[in-house]
C-alpha cells in the first residue's frame, strides 16, 4: 500500500500542492485526474522519490520513501524523448543494468505484444512506438508499484488501446498496484478501480469507479465535470 | 476490440448482461468454456478486478461453474438457462411497458400493435 500523508510542495511562494493525503491499496489500478497544472506530475514525482516534498510523508508498505525506494517503484515519466539515442534493445539492456527487477525477456514479450521493432533508434520511432517502447521497458520490471505519468496522452485510439491491453496483460492484480495520471478519463475508465481528483493542488475526491456509476448513475467523465464546476463555484 | 460502455450502469453489470446475452442467443452453449479472467479482461480492455467480479456474479447466479484447474464453464443445467431466458424476456417486457406507459400508451394499444406486427402488417 502507498500511503501519502499531508504532502505539500512549494516553489518559492508558489504553492503547487497543499495537504495532499490518500492511499493506494495493493492490487488496484488508480487514476489521478485533474486539469493541466493541478499538480498531478508533482504528486507522482514525489511518490517516485525523484522530487522532495516540502511537507508530509510518503510510505510504501509502512516504510518512508527515499530515492532508494525507486527499487520497488517502476516510474514511467511523461517525457516524449526518452533515451533517444538507444534502440529499443539497448534501452532494455540499460534498464537491466539499472534495475534488479528488470526482466529482459519479459520486456521483449511485451514489446512483441505491442508490435514494436527493437532494432530502431528511439528518436527515429513514431510517437506511438515511442510510447509503446516506454511502456514495454516499464512493464519489463517486476515492481510492486507502477507509477505512470500520462502513459496514454497524445496517442491515437489504436495506440492507446494497445497500451491499455498491455497494462492489463502484463500486471498482476493480486500483487501489483498501478497509479497513473491521465486526461483521457473516458477511454481509461474501464481500466481503473478508482480515481483521485486533484484541483489546484488539493484532493477534491477519491472514489471507486463502479461506485460512481452505481450511486450517482453517471460515468466518471460526467461526475468529474460536475465536481470541478462545483469546486470552482465554492472557491469564488 | 475494447468495448464501449453505457454511462449509467456499472461496468461489471454490463459485462454480466453481455455474457448472459451470448448464452441466450446461443453463441455460448451449455458446457462451453469461458476465456480466463485475464484473457477476457484484455480483450474487453477492462480491469482484471472488474472481470473477476463479473465471473463471481455469474457463478452466484448459477449461470457458470468453475472447475478447479480447468476454468469457468457455462452451466449444463438447462433448466437454469431456460429460467435465465425467461427472466431476461420478462425484464425487457417490463421495461418496454414502463417506457410506453410513461408516455401514456395503454397496454391495449401495445397489444394491438404487436398483433398487427405478428400478422406482418
TrEMBL record, chain A:
State one molecular function term (GO): ATP binding
Source species, please?
Viridibacillus soli
> What is the protein named?
ABC transporter ATP-binding protein
Q: Which SMART domains match?
A: AAA
Record key words, sorted: ATP-binding, Nucleotide-binding, Transport
Q: Which PROSITE patterns match?
A: ABC_TRANSPORTER_2
List the CDD domains. Answer: ABC_DR_subfamily_A (cd03230)
Q: Which Gene3D superfamilies match?
A: P-loop containing nucleotide triphosphate hydrolases
* InterPro entries to which the protein is assigned, alphabetical: AAA+_ATPase, ABC_transporter-like_ATP-bd, ABC_Transporter_VariousFunc, P-loop_NTPase
Q: Which SUPFAM superfamilies match?
A: P-loop containing nucleoside triphosphate hydrolases (SSF52540)
Superkingdom is: Bacteria
According to the entry, every stretch annotated as the ABC transporter domain falls at 2-225
Q: Name one Pfam family in it.
A: ABC_tran
Automatic annotation (TrEMBL), chain B:
Q: Which Gene3D superfamilies match?
A: Winged helix-like DNA-binding domain superfamily/Winged helix DNA-binding domain
Q: Is the keyword Zinc-finger assigned to this protein?
A: no
Pfam families attached to this UniProt entry: GntR (PF00392)
The record places domain HTH gntR-type at 9-77
Under InterPro entries, the record lists: Tscrpt_reg_HTH_GntR, WH-like_DNA-bd_sf, WH_DNA-bd_sf
Q: What is the lineage of its organism?
A: Bacteria, Bacillati, Bacillota, Bacilli, Bacillales
Q: Which organism is it from?
A: Viridibacillus soli
State what protein this is by name. GntR family transcriptional regulator
Q: Which UniProt keywords apply?
A: DNA-binding, Transcription, Transcription regulation
Provide the coiled-coil residue spans.
none
